[in-house]
Amino acid sequence: MALDEDALNIDIMAPRFRSGEDRGRWRLKDFKWPYLFVTVFARDGLGFTLRLNCAGYPVDPPTGTFWDCENDGVLAFPSWPKGSGRVTASLRTDWQNGAALYIPCDRVSIHGHDNWRSVYPSMIWNPKRGITQYLEIVHDLLHSRDYACAETTNS
User: Fold this and answer.
1) What is the set of active-site residues?
2) By residue range, what is the domain housing residue 7?
């Protein structure tokens, strides 16, 4: 097993990751190196599966997108989480054609955004926080006031 794969295995077995599962924040769905599939739950109970490319972990941050496991592809854009403010700014389908979330801890999105290091220092990838950092940021977005619950978007 490669060092990056081994490091990720250790992190998904660690108390911090398991605590998020126990509290219903996320659930490990699958692990097919270098991809980790984790369903993150929104405040309305909807689950959104992330496919996280973890090659180079934990030195290199993961990069992720919402994933349709049934069709083995990026989740159709109309099915992405809806909202305003931080949700629309971070969960952009127009960024990298949906291949990466527009958040400071994403490997793809940090490139070209050097100002994020001073504007969002707590959201810059920290290998010591590991994969849960990425999941916590997405979970926080899906639990923010900016997230539009399904019942709001369907009425």
Assistant:
1) 105
2) 3-149
